[in-house]
Design goal:
Elements lengths: L1 H32 L7 H4 L1 H76 L1
Family: Belongs to the FliJ family.
Main location: membrane
Subcellular location: Cell membrane
């Protein structure tokens, strides 16, 4: 579970970095060529070519992070179910041990009663 949680955190950071890259690239293009750069993106093509790829990377990273978080949550739920099952087994074992102890106590008492009855019968 810890490995899945760690993977989810790593993928979340990757998704955050991918999302942050888009405004950084736009800002870099604007400072490189001035505010007119945003109007002439179709001429340079660099940012225009990168934006769909950057958005795709962001979406993929976000999806991977969500899937990893879902896997970590599923692992947590499995662990909770396993612990509950373990507790049930422990309770059943304790109940059986109590039943065996009661039976042994009854047998011992019955044997003592029988021995006492024999002594009285003599």
């Amino acid at each position: 579970m810890a490995a899945r949680r760690s993977s989810a955190v790593e993928l979340f950071h990757r998704a955050t970095a991918a999302a942050a890259a888009i405004p950084r690239e736009v800002a870099a293009a604007t400072t490189e060529c001035g505010s007119e750069a945003m109007l002439s993106l179709h001429i340079t093509g660099d940012l225009t070519a990168w934006l769909p790829r950057g958005e795709s990377l962001r979406q993929r990273a976000a999806t991977e992070a969500r899937l990893a978080e879902d896997a970590a949550e599923a692992a947590r739920e499995e662990m909770v179910a396993a612990r509950a099952a373990q507790r049930v087994v422990e309770l059943l074992r304790a109940r059986r041990a109590d039943e065996v102890a009661r039976k042994m106590s009854r047998r011992s008492q019955a044997m003592l009663d029988e021995m006492a009855a024999r002594k009285l019968a003599r």
